């Protein structure tokens, strides 16, 4: 029955695409694809009717559902029949789709559903490598999206990732590279993260400002200013949006105006007011080795007032396959290099993070380990003090949003501000 339903909704979605011929923009990568997809969709919606990935619908079931405009009825046969018998809810001019893969062959299947006119590859990391022999094999699977991009289309590659950049030979379409790298064709520079200086964080206040300059291929530049965003990753997510907006004839004024409307989804490096005047960096949506390092870099960009601390609360990184122990140990060594004041690890797999951090020089007294996020949250609820900066990050299965909920200053807004609040 599952295969029958999948085949039928796929046929229905492909028929809709063949009839109406919307522009298809696809985004993939191990890190940053959701933020990039969201930035592109938000920016283009100022001029076009845009449809974009619903929730995390980025697989063989989710992509057809997004194209038809329906959420999954889960196990309801009547719900599926209603989708199959109903017309698409909307017919956008542009679809911005997120493509996620777990197994070899997944990307070809997704591109067979909706072949990209424009594709974006963000960054690659061992996450989702469980069913791949190596990171290079994972990269080759991602490269299928590049190969499937229409020859008259456009491929955008992150120049800050050498593995991504090495895939440009797979493209028959024009290629534009982006990033902070000096060799990027569209380049960000002069990145600044301004943080609050008084270090007592209360709801409704501004916590941070990111600034950067974006240098375009036509020699123009755009000054980016982002309120309550953190890290170079948020700037990286904007670069493909700006490139695509230019290609689709948005003016510089329209691009700058739309930057103010971009809000990244919950759990993606979002600053939140915490208990007792602390600040939480909520990155609980997911984790990969590259995104863990990027998050720690942001944490260590803060310089807390005297007696306040930088606290890293880390859950495991899932779907690493044979890289699991190696990547958790490497992360622990990097935590020691960054010099966090307190390391809290959560879950069995993160014991390797703690062990490696201690071996690399963190005093054992500045570390704690808990079996569950609930236990960690309750302990931190007592320990967190005014001015502390607390990074909370882990893979979806680590459920680190439970720690965030324990520590946030406005727990009644959890359903609005946090991920996975409809999960049991």
Summing up helix and strand content along with how strands pair, one would put the structural category as: alpha/beta
Summarize the helix and strand pattern as letters: HEHEHHEHEHEHEEEEHHEEHEHEHEHEHH
Report, as a whole number of angstroms, the end-to-end distance: 26 Å
User: At the third CATH level, what is the topology name of the largest domain?
Assistant: UDP-N-acetylmuramoyl-L-alanine:D-glutamate ligase
Protein name: Alanine racemase
InterPro entries: Mur-like_cat_sf, Mur_ligase_C, Mur_ligase_C_dom_sf, Mur_ligase_cen, MurCDEF_CellWall_CoF430Synth
Pfam family, one: Mur_ligase_C
Keywords: ATP-binding, Ligase, Nucleotide-binding
Could you list some keywords that capture this structure?
424 residues, alpha/beta, UDP-N-acetylmuramoyl-L-alanine:D-glutamate ligase, Protein-Tyrosine Phosphatase, Chain A, nine-stranded mixed β-sheet, six-stranded mixed β-sheet, globular
Describe this structure in words.
The chain has 424 residues and is α/β, with parallel strands linked by helices. It has 2 domains: 2-180 and 244-253, Mur-like, catalytic domain (UDP-N-acetylmuramoyl-L-alanine:D-glutamate ligase); 270-417, Protein-Tyrosine Phosphatase, Chain A (Alpha-Beta Complex), CATH 3.90.190.20. Helices cover 36% and strands 19% of the residues. It has 15 helices and 15 strands. The protein has helices at 2-20, 33-44, 62-68, 77-85, 106-113, 135-148, 162-165, 232-247, 252-259, 289-299, 324-338, 351-359, 373-383, 401-407, 414-417; strands spanning 23-28, 50-52, 94-98, 118-121, 154-158, 174-179, 186-195, 208-215, 221-227, 270-273, 279-283, 310-314, 342-346, 367-370, 389-393. It has a 9-stranded mixed sheet with strand order 2-3-1-4-5-6-7-8-9, sandwiched between helices. A 6-stranded mixed sheet has the order 10-11-15-12-13-14, sandwiched between helices. Helix 5 runs parallel beside helix 6. The longest helix has 19 residues, at 2-20. The protein is globular and about 65 Å long. It starts with a helix and ends in a 7-residue tail after the last helix. InterPro entries: Mur-like_cat_sf, Mur_ligase_C, Mur_ligase_C_dom_sf, Mur_ligase_cen, MurCDEF_CellWall_CoF430Synth.
């Amino acid at each position: 029955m599952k295969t029958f339903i999948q085949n039928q909704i796929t046929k229905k979605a492909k028929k809709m695409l063949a009839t109406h011929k919307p522009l298809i923009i696809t985004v993939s990568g191990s890190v940053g694809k959701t933020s990039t997809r969201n930035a592109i969709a938000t920016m283009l919606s100022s001029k076009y009717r845009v449809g974009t990935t619903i929730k995390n619908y980025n697989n063989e079931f989710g992509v057809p559902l997004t194209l038809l405009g329906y959420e999954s009825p889960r196990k309801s046969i009547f719900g599926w029949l209603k989708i199959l018998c109903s017309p698409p809810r909307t017919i956008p001019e542009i679809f911005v789709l997120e493509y996620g893969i777990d197994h070899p062959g997944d990307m070809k299947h997704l591109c067979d559903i909706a072949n990209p006119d424009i594709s974006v590859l963000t960054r690659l990391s061992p996450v989702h490598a469980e069913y791949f022999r190596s990171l290079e094999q994972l990269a080759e699977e991602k490269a299928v999206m590049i190969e499937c991009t229409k020859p008259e289309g456009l491929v955008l590659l992150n120049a800050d990732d050498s593995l991504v950049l090495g895939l440009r030979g797979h493209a028959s379409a024009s290629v534009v590279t982006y990033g902070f790298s000096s060799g990027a064709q569209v380049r960000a520079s002069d990145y600044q993260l301004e943080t609050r200086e008084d270090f007592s964080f209360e709801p409704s206040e501004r916590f941070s400002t990111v600034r950067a300059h974006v240098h375009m291929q036509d020699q123009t530049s755009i000054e980016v200013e982002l309120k309550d965003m953190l890290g170079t990753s948020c700037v990286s997510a904007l670069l493909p949006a700006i490139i695509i907006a230019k290609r689709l004839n948005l003016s510089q004024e329209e691009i700058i105006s739309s930057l103010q409307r971009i809000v990244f989804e919950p759990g993606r490096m979002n600053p939140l007011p915490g208990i007792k005047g602390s600040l939480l960096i909520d990155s609980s949506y997911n984790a990969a080795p590259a995104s863990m390092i990027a998050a720690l870099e942001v944490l260590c960009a803060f310089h807390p007032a005297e007696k306040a601390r930088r606290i890293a609360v880390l859950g495991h990184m899932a779907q690493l396959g044979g890289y699991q122990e190696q990547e958790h140990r490497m992360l622990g060594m990097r935590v020691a290099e960054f010099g966090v004041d307190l390391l809290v690890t959560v879950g069995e797999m993160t014991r390797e993070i703690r062990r490696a951090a201690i071996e690399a020089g963190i005093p054992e007294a500045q570390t704690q380990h808990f079996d569950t996020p609930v236990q960690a949250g309750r302990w931190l609820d007592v320990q967190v003090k005014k001015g502390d900066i607390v990074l909370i990050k882990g893979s979806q299965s680590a459920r680190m949003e439970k720690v965030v909920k324990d520590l946030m200053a406005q727990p009644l807004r959890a359903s609005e501000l946090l991920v996975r609040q409809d999960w049991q």
